[in-house]
Amino acid sequence: MKNHVWRPLYVVIAFVAAILLFRYFYVPKDFGSGARGFMYAFHRKSNEEDWKKQPVKYRDTGKQKMHEFCGKCHGKEVKVRSEDLHGVIPCENCHGPAFRHPDEPRKLTIDRSRELCLRCHTSLPYTTSERKRIPGIDPKTHNVGLECVFCHNPHNPRLADRRGQ
Amino acid sequence: MLDQVAQHALQVHGEAWTVKELFVLPNEYIYWSIQIVMYPFMTGLVAGAFVLSSLYHVFHVEKLKEIARFSLVFSFALLPVAMMPLMLHLQQPFRGINVLMTPHFTSAISAFGIVFLTYASIVATELWLVYRQHFVLSAQALQAKQNRSVMDSIFLLIFNCLTLGARDLSHEAIEKDHRACTRMAGIGIPVACFLHGYAGFIFGSVKANALWMTPLMPVIFICSAVVSGVALCILCYVLVQEIRKFMAKRKMSRWAREASAPTVAELDGAEHEEVLLASNYLLYFMIAALTLEILDLIFRGYTQVKSWDILRKVIMERDFFKIFILQYTIGNAVPFLMMSLPGRTVRRTTLATVLVLFGVFMMRYNVVIGGQAFSLSFAGFMEYHLPIVPEDWETFKEGLFGALTVAATPFVLFYFINKVLPVFGMKESH
Amino acid sequence: MKRRDFIKNCIVVIAGASVPLSALVMVDPKKVLAANPEIQWAFLIDTTKCVGCGFCVKACKTENDIPFNANITRTWVERYVFTMDDQRYIDSPKGALYGFTDSRVDLGMGEFKEIDPRNVGKAFFVPKLCNHCATPPCTQVCPVGATYKTDDGVVLVDRTWCIGCGYCIMACPYAARYFHPTLKVADKCTFCYHRITKGLETACVNACPFGARKMCNIHDTNDRNTQVILRERVGVLKDDFGTKPQAFYIGLAQEVR
Known about the structure:
heterotrimer, A: 165 residues, mainly alpha, two-stranded antiparallel sheet, C: 257 residues, Alpha-Beta Plaits, 12 strands
């Protein structure tokens, strides 16, 4: 090792050592391969907890679980509405995500727009799709400019039922 | 927080330069744009320049002596620039260091930091071995100087550091330098090829992309890298020689006024010889690169797997002009004829190298952008519109001016590096 | 020993000792999985039930704080319309964020195609999302270990570590990934990891009124959805890439890619 031509190598080694020293302080200590091995699970372990901490916004669990969240306070309403024609649609799809309701937001913003109804009720001529079973209208001709809720009860939109009430 | 409807539609990365046609999946954009075209192009120049210099250092092609030293220094100037487009295209450039900190070796990109640094140290070592004598002599000359200016003192410090304390200039020591240099160049060739072949691997290993995924990609990239690197070295060498001839004629520079300065005729002779020899190597590598590219194309057309329908539309219709006219005709066929027809002159070769460089650039462009010109659904197309007038930082760096900045940087660097590592007028070097 | 030699040796020892051996240990995932069979999340999509309302897309964007009108989405719904004269039209305007409220098919570049209802052959909707592949190419290619597969089978992105190179976006054959417009990191479906780990269903499953989207633990053979996956004829998307997708489809047509 007396030969002077090796000197650049020492510089390189010093450089590598510097990088490794920096790495020691820079990289989080929980970085490593999980049970799935290096190829698919080389990561910072605590990131999984970061993701779990995201806030839940849609709180209600739907008809199958008897509207666990909404039902706690609005039990009577929920029970009636579940039997309605639109009972299968989760409350929060139109009423908006509950988030921390009733603390935040105190009052949910209900989407009563025509566009919301049109998501399902625009007539599309697809006989092989489930869409054919849903009553549809042509938004360009059906009472243009009028909100659907003007005539239809959003929970039970059949006009015949409304007349009966 | 929950009132989403009022939110303004945000510009998504890629939206500014992507035009979608027919059915393209909602998340598909041309995410890799002009900077990723520049990346393999610049890396290719580095690798090619180094291979050219190694022809002299390893295989002792004596005639390439001048151009070899030039291309070695130039490849050093190109090195940081190979990294620049990558840094510019990162969405989180300050986290770029993570590639070295937690390298995930199953990724082709993770090797970049390590391969790149290995390669950089090899080039730097080789330069040190070639220039050690110069460093020591310069340091001694500056030391001996009576009244040093500030600049002189700075240079003295730089040269003193650069010697790394090895000031032995005996014949034996110089011989050792030479032998080590040959060895470093020998190690350097495979590393240079690896550096670039692996740039090809980054693309070739993306199985989701029908155009990129071919094992030929790394080999094609290496061959075209050498082509572009040699072409750029010839071009720059000729330009520098022309400037020197001009200065020798007018006795403009300090060295030109010295008694030992080369005459115009000498310069002319050296230029002619070196350029023609280097362009021979250029021709060989061009043949290899073209053969592989055409093979890939023919193979895709012949086997006609699922992706061929959409690839044919991209290659034969939508990108026909860019691929067959700009790349193959102007960038390959024309310069090939120019260099292979008898009666080749320096001027004609120089013009050919310009076309070759353009051809290799178009090849990178057609691979990188062309690979994203069709949807993963195989039912739609995306068209790339290079942002020219920058509206914000993103359209600057991913636009024409970002690419030009990258292209201009090596020349600026070369100018400064040349102050410490003079390419020409060094009598005592090997 | 001279002082210089001592320093030299020290540097050599330090460099050698700090080589990150831990990063190189390879574990066979199959062995480990066989030992820990508890939870493997899987997704079940019944394309015959989907009506293209896009409530799932809306719920996903709201739940996960994805800029609502930005033209990227974690989940989306595609419309396939085949005509009797063998033409095929596919679209997904804004990923079906507002559903399909136009009978014309979006051809891109501001063009729309009106199809004669009598000419329509089969037509259907296909919801898509990240397939959370068993062998995800996106995590394989991440250069820094910022994206990974959790032990329960969900592919996540570490937003504090992602360098934004876009390699994972390129590697995904399903175009499930994109750059988050404000955070500037790669982003994708997380199977609503914050929900499923609390016993809730994902936002999209929760929002679907028609039961077109379902989730299950594929190791829980008592689960009805798991039984569907194991007993019925279900398909996956683009299995030729060897990604082993964990989103299973009922009623998949071979034209769906």
